[in-house]
Amino acid sequence: MAEVFAHDGTRLHVEVDGAGDPVTVLAHGLTNSCKELSAFTPMAPGTKVRFCFRGHGHSGTPVPGHYRFADFAGDVDVVARTYGATRAVGTSLGQGAITRLLAEQPDRFERLVFILPAALDLPLSGTEIAGFERTADLLETLPTDQAIDEILRGSGRASEYTDRPWLRDVDMLLWQDLQPLGVARALREVTLDVAIADRELLRRVSAPTLVIAREGDPVHPAELGRVLGELIPNAELILLGSEEELYASIPQLVERVARFLG
């Protein structure tokens, strides 16, 4: 384990697996930590660099006002530069942060993987923002375990937990390194932002890009995967039909991503 410091001095927790080229930076999703994408590291070639975004996992928690997409893009950039990463993998928030970098530096990486993309150039709706605000309120006012229980209960998945009890275990894993204060601040700020000003900027990206999306996910809409697949000239889209298909396909997806990065 190591540490890197962001442009504003925020301490970023880093974990490195493997050695040699290529070097890949992996950027996790909102509320999660560097462990989220750990399933993709054992089979991937070369050096894999996972890190926790500011306010997440084991990283530092800056004061409010430092949780916009530009800040998260800066986190990706400083980690990638420190380790010489030529490839980038991002899911959800991580995808948005990498996209922000690409809008400014379209040739920043040689290969890209976007898993369940969530952000581009359209603001969230008032209803969506209210949902994130509620989650932030719970994290700020309740003990952590109780807040997580309330968040999962309000996610609309309670009935699914009865039929598929393993699903709750999967959801709980995504919260295991929760940093309540930092995540609450991130939820209140980045959800009011957009990743890039104009999606057309992504047409300048020439790097081979693998986009993985699924139907039926309101937070990570399949339509966004289709849009990225159309905008980026050298993109390939893998579109899965459901959450069940996504989980069943994880071994094949891990292998596909590893081959793509190599």
What's the gyration radius in Å? 17 Å
Which sheet architecture does the biggest sheet show?
Answer: 8 strands, mixed
Beta-strand portion reads: 15-25%
N-to-C order of helices and strands: EEEEHEHEHHHHHEHEHH
Assign an overall shape: globular
How far apart lie the N and C ends?
Answer: 24 Å
Q: Considering DSSP H and I runs of 4 or more, what fraction of the residues is helical?
A: 40-55%
Structural class: alpha/beta
* Low-confidence sequence ranges: none
Number of domains: 1
Instruction: Give the overall average pLDDT.
Output: 95
The CATH class assignment is: Alpha Beta
CATH superfamily: Alpha/Beta hydrolase fold, catalytic domain
Number of helices: 10
Number of strands: 8
Task: Walk me through the structure.
It is built from ten helices and eight strands. α1 crosses α2. Strands 1-2-4-3-5-6-7-8 form an eight-stranded mixed β-sheet, with helices on both faces. α2 links the parallel β5 and β6. The protein is globular. It is α/β, with parallel strands linked by helices and 262 residues long. It has a single domain, classed as Alpha/Beta hydrolase fold, catalytic domain (Rossmann fold, 3-Layer(aba) Sandwich). The chain starts with a strand and ends with a helix.
